[in-house]
Amino acid sequence: MKIAKQHTPVLIVGAGPSGLMMAAQLLRNGVQPIIIDSKQGPTTQSKALAVQARSLEIYRQLGVVDTVIQNGKQGAGLIFNINDKEQARLPINNIGEGQTPFPYVLVYQQYKNERVLLDYLTQNCCPVYWETSLETVTETAGKATVTLVSSGEKTTLTCNWLIGADGAHSVVRKQAGIPFNGDTYPRTFYLADLNLNTSLGDYIDLYLSKDGFAAIFPMPEDKRYRLIGNLPDTLADKEDITVEDILPGMEQVTGAKQQVTECHWLTTYKLHHRMADKFRSGRSFLIGDAAHVHSPVGGQGMNTGLQDAYNLAWKLAGVVKGQFNELILDSYADERMPVAKRLLNTTDTAFNIIMKRNIFVNFFKSHMMPGLLKFLWAREGLKKEFFKILSQTGISYRDSKLNMHLGRGSKIKAGDRLPYLKIFDEKKQTETDLHQWCAQPGFTFIAMGKIAEMDLFSLAKWINQTYPQLLNFYYLPLSSKNQHVFDAFEITSPQPRTILVRPDMHIGLINDGINTDIIRNYMDNVVEVLSRES
Prior knowledge:
- The strands form 5 sheets. Strands 1, 2, 8, 9, 10, 11, 17 and 18 form an 8-stranded mixed β-sheet that branches. An 8-stranded mixed β-sheet has the order 6-5-13-14-15-12-16-19, sandwiched between helices.
- Helix 1 (17-28) packs parallel to helix 4 and helix 1 (17-28) runs parallel beside helix 7 (301-320).
- It has helices spanning 17-28, 53-62, 65-70, 110-123, 171-176, 243-254, 301-320, 330-355, 359-377, 380-391, 434-437, 453-466, 483-488, 516-526; strands spanning 7-13, 34-36, 50-51, 73-74, 77-82, 85-91, 106-107, 128-129, 132-140, 143-150, 153-164, 180-196, 203-209, 212-218, 224-230, 260-276, 280-281, 284-286, 292-293, 404-406, 422-425, 430-433, 443-448, 471-476, 497-501, 507-511.
- The model has no long low-confidence stretch (mean pLDDT 91).
- It is globular, with a radius of gyration of 25 Å.
- It is an alpha/beta fold.
- It folds into 3 domains: 7-71 and 106-180 and 274-349, FAD/NAD(P)-binding domain, CATH 3.50.50; 183-272, Alpha-Beta Plaits (2-Layer Sandwich), CATH 3.30.70.2450; 404-526, Glutaredoxin, CATH 3.40.30.
């Protein structure tokens, strides 16, 4: 299928998870993009396995989370084995209870993520143009002109904005001349999706030894497992690696023989830790692996790319529709680059501990790490903090220019992710939660406290007249059923409070009181709303 249009507001290069999420979020916010990919079609292979709670929250907002959960599998936990002996068993199922609707890690392969997003695009009449690659980019005032190649034919397309979601070898990044600094880990690794003749349980088994490491991940399908490990030095330069090649090394590290009944996929690869010098150049943006790549420790990579798209899409959609000043787009890199940098540093440190062979690290892994893990895991507070990091629900943009914190509370501040708190909706007389109140596109204004009926009516009228289609309004009165919400926000009096939530469910404004001038100041001078019509 060839692109018939000559112009599009947004061109997305790359139909992996990040690019597809970008397209889905733009569609959700009222912008029709064009998305291309050089592959022949959707893949059935996937390096990424883990979907974290924050990504599931995004899927919930898109209305597709039930499909995701039905076709995934909750991770039960992690078993640390040192020299093929179990040393620590760390259950993770539901460790985030009360923090999110999804207090676990979901095993849900990358290709399944792509399929559910492709279905969303199809339902919204947004096709992916496969076998179409980007060749050149030329920027002029107000637009970018790109040369595309499809079936050997070159075509020209103009766009207002270009999104590079085209992976570690991003053409968009190279065309923009953005350095991709970092390094490549020296070892070669293998990845295999296999059916075994026995069931190994629901825990992830991580094996550490002087010869390297191996990991066995249970997958949603019966008796199917993901095997990951480092190739022995004797096989580092061998081409066409087979299952028979990797099994002896796997068995040496794990101390157990595995009988393979079917091999679905086997690949070898090098791991990189790199980050782009900047996430934007002119009219081009980088998201996902085009912006940052790192080791797979913690299952963070794909999820970080999904959040990149989630952060950028609502801002870009607002600019395309003439609602926001273009300056809001600077906040994408300001907010997401520190997240990527921290992730790169933490995964790099963890991966080096796993892979290093020197005597001191081996002593730490064999004699100190198991006891340390058990000690830490016995403390509920530390487990909760660990889950915040793992699930990415703890990511905050408190230093962002899009924040106004005018409240006395210190536990929850502007820039934080809106906490998941169950509530009783007095108007509908039903139980729901704050995240569900943010299901619609746009900002969400939550008024909390005691407000007279006429004042409430006047406030709703002002919102409808001033910010139609931009501001969704909800009222949470003080009641015994919702006292825990007021406690969480440190509200100790019936005085009304303002909570203004961004479209990506991060808090933009907190104010002790309800003042329309402050709300207007935030929307017009911080977000820089230009047009209040959708």
